[in-house]
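Title: Prediction job returns without error message
Component: structure pipeline
Severity: low
Priority: P3
Assignee: unassigned

Description:
Job completed but the reporter wants confirmation the result is attached to the right record. Sequence as submitted:
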Amino acid sequence: MYFIKVAFFCVFMLFYSSQVFASDQSDKLVLLFDLKGILEKRIEGCIKASPSAEEIVSKYSGQFYGITEASKYWPRVVEIYKNYYTSICNSMSADDYAKFAAGFYDERMTPEEINEVLAFFSTPTGKKFLGVNHAFETSGFGSGAQDKMKEAEETYTHQLHELAQEADLNRDRK
């Protein structure tokens, strides 16, 4: 019985230590690729690129259910659209993104493969690639953005519709 417990413990420790090692190596990849920094830049760029409610209303005047800039409800329209774009841009935190990426690498690569990748990126060519890749990654917008845009658009269009109904009800009371 003692032998079985020791054998089980050894197998458990081998599995556990390889998982911890793999996670540490994956975390190194996340740091090496500066995935947190890349996501933070994307969020920043997304927020800066988000159109204002005024810009949107000039393009899509019919989208506000009759609420115009002259309406007392206009500040709420502006707030709804600000929240809309903020939620899209902040759909995932940098820490969550880094954890997700590390887990993604762990699931798809062995610790040995990760070490080979780390070794490559220690070479001059690998370092150059990292610089070019970082520039590329921070210049664009994430691939999942379109899905988040559609999801957020549905949410905030619904909020605008409700606001328009409230505004309509209040017009009848005058």
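Comment from assignee: result matches the submitted record. The mean pLDDT is 74.
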